[in-house]
Amino acid sequence: MRNVPFLYSLLVLTLVINACSDAKPPAEKVTKAEVTSDSPRARESFSILLAGTPIGKLEVDHDAGRTLIDYEYRNNGRGPSIKESLSFGENGFPSAWTIEGTATFGNEIDEHFVLAGAEASWKDTTGTGSTTLEEPRLYVSQEASPYAIWVYARALLADEDHSLPVLPGGTLRLDEIEQLSLENTEGDIAATAYALSGIELNPTYFLLDDEGAFLAVMAPRFSIIRAGYEAEDERLRGLATEYDARRFELIQKKVAHNFTGPVRIENVHIFDPHTQTRSEVVSVVVLGKRIEKIIPLKSPLVSGEVLIDGAGGTLLAGMYEMHGHASQNRALLNIAAGVTSIRDMGNNNEVLSDFIAKIKNGRLAGPRITRSGFIEGKSPFNSNNGILVSNQEEAIAAVREYSNGEYHQIKIYNSMNPDWVPAMVAEAHANGLKVAGHVPAFSNADAMIAAGYDEMTHINQVMLGWVLEEGEDTRTLLRLTALRRLPALELDDPKVTATIDAMVTGNVAIDPTLAIHEALLHSRNGAVSPGMVDFIDHMPVGVQRGAKTAWADIATPEDDKAYWAAFDKIIETVKLMHDKGILLVPGTDLGGSFNYHRELELYQLVGMSPPEILKWASYDMAAYLGQEQELGSIEAGKLADFFLVPGDPTIDLKDIKTISMVVKDGVVYFPSEIYPEFGITPFVDAPDVSLP
Fold first, then answer.
1. How many of the other CB atoms lie within 10 Å of CB of 471?
2. Distance between CA atoms of 125 and 668, rounded to whole angstroms?
3. What's the helix, strand, coil split of the chain in %, to 5?
4. Is residue 467, in this structure, part of any structural domain at all?
């Protein structure tokens, strides 16, 4: 959610659970809640926690009719810094709102909203807007701190049906979930849990106290809690996880088609990854979780068959998102995008284990997940995933902990001491684990390749070693901002050649994550990000606003030119690697789904053809993970993981963006039924289905 940046980049959000529809309006004292300079809540302080670790602050001062907000956090060397000034009209709506600072990746924030009589005007990173209001209208900020949730909640609670049309567009809705209490050393406090939704893909879960004051906001890994109540962090994150699960469980019951008998998908071409061609028109029969057989089109029907008309479209094996950070809120959207398998590249281990269990026991729909064991060194800049270590002994012990059969590889991160890496790699390989990762700070890709990495993660992690000066710290945003140095790089430079030759000799793969680099380097304020052009019109208004916001701080024309050209240099480099025979691995680090389609599309710039990309995204990645006997192609006896597109993506790869049906584990899904649950306009109708 870009209108509240922490919601967009950190919170794992879901739509409100259906049970909320029967919620009763809260007490009058809540709907009329006010905070003034002489009230007990005149100054509010909140702790920001990521997986239980403090990472920042939210300070609020209600001073003589104005609300001043100071918001900042740092995780993984980055985060927003925001200061706000907010005034309210008599109706409780904002009348003046100023938001200044920097966003997570450095983009400057300078947002203003003013309501003068019936005239409303605003300026944000997408541009300016104004309107004459016939009746009061709540403004939803693009870049505000999380305290904006309280601003919206107060206005919504005062409305009879807790739903309001908002500026610049869309409708915001509030639903009550449950009553609960929180504890601190001074005793219990009554609270109400709510879900705020309507203009984004998923809602935000938060708490108000019994006086209507802001108490907490929570997600499975992230929370902001009133100072003094930090001990409730784990419980609140667990509640957010459960709210997510209930929501998606209800959606799954609506959209998952578990047909009891055989299912025949007729009149389809099958993409064969071995030949990279489409078959003649045939029918595919699924029984249970597996593909039973592939038969000629005119074969006699069998009693009890469900018949799905493929209408001459193309059936393709489910695709692999190889740089995911799996979560409940992304799972069903990945299924709808034909992404039936994900390699998770680092997560909260307990949260991910719980999520995988819910998929396996059938409570939730989701892709198959291959796990990476995340290991990070402790530092002021460390990420808060996986296992944090302070010395080489702890690092080796972490590798051993991941050697329990549940993990495919370990992933090493930025703050790791590079001197420990050779021992970690040796321990991993001795236990049958692959090794992937970032380049630890103050080292370079050459050292990690020599240490035994099997795969490099992110193309910038390799290329930075060619442009950084000794001693520069990549634990900070420098690992992104230094990319503006790339245009001056010559790819025949001996240091470039040495690295690429070492990757070839060592059979080292790379996960370039092109889509996230495109978003960083080519997004600009006021223009739709190039990677989102094809689908942005189908998205909720909040997502559309976010698509017109730059990531980086592009302050000068020279910066603009350098960042733009840096992505061209990245494409040249990845093409060189591909031409040299280095294995590329497709992943987004952006949650997959629509971004995964863009990731694949970008590899046409590298010189890969659509048929080559389709094979690579399915069969090749199944083989890379040792799963090709069960997945990666549509063959009798294999697991029924595939998707249907009306067109021919071997000619136009964009056809994978219009998927009409997905089958995962034999369960049938129609994206046209899934997308409205997220406020997304479907791209194509479902195929015709005939029941026996």
1. 7
2. 41
3. 30, 30, 40
4. no
Query: Cα angle at 594 between 589 and 595, to 5 degrees?
Result: 30
Instruction: Say what the pLDDT of residue 34 is.
Output: 55
Backbone angles phi, psi at 497, to 5 degrees: -60, -40
Supply the pLDDT for residue 381.
Answer: 92
257 contacts 263 by C-beta, under 8 angstroms: no
Phi then psi for 201, rounded to 5 degrees?
A: -70, -35
Report the alpha-carbon distance of residue 502 to residue 561 in Å, rounded.
31
| Cβ contact 281:399 at 8 Å | no
pLDDT in tens, 359-401: 999 889 999 999 999 999 999 999 989 999 999 999 999 999 9
User: 162: which residues sit within 8 A by CB, 6+ positions away?
Assistant: 25, 156, 173, 174, 175
Beta bridge partners of residue 269, listed in sequence order: 314
Consecutive H or E run containing 636: none
Rounded distance, CA 458 to CA 455, Å?
Answer: 10
User: Which pLDDT score is estimated for 4?
Assistant: 36
- Token duo for residue 66: 């104005």
> What backbone torsions phi and psi does residue 287 show, to the nearest 5 degrees?
-130, 115
Write the CA distances from 632 to 65, 81, 273, integer angstroms: 61, 44, 8
Inside any domain, residue 533: no
Residues in the chain: 692
Total domains present in the chain: 1
Distance CA 94, CA 114 (A): 8
What would the DSSP string read from start to end of 471-497?
T--TTSTHHHHGGGGGGG--TTSHHHH
Q: Which helix (H) or strand (E) holds 64?
A: none
Range with the poorest average pLDDT among 181-185, 239-243, 332-336, 418-422: 181-185
Q: Beta strands 43-50 and 319-324: pairing type?
A: unpaired
Question: Within a domain: residue 130?
Answer: yes
Cis peptide before 168 (omega within 30 of 0): yes
Identify the pLDDT of residue 477. Answer: 87
Per-residue confidence band for 184, with pLDDT thresholds at 50, 70 and 90: confident
Q: Domain range for residue 37?
A: 5-254
pLDDT of residue 38: 45
pTM over cut 0.85: yes
Q: Give residue 8's pLDDT band: very low, low, confident or very high (50, 70, 90).
A: very low
457, 435 contact by CB (below 8 A): no
HSE-CB at 395 with a 13 A cutoff on CA atoms is: 23
Identify the DSSP state of 365. -
Question: Euclidean distance between the first and final Cα of the chain, in Å?
Answer: 44
Dihedrals phi, psi of 437, to nearest 5 degrees: 160, 175
In a domain, 238, yes or no: yes
**Range 5-30 average pLDDT:** 32
- Predicted confidence (pLDDT) per residue in 617-675, tens digit: 999 999 999 999 999 999 999 999 999 999 999 999 999 999 999 999 999 999 999 99
331-342 average pLDDT score: 98
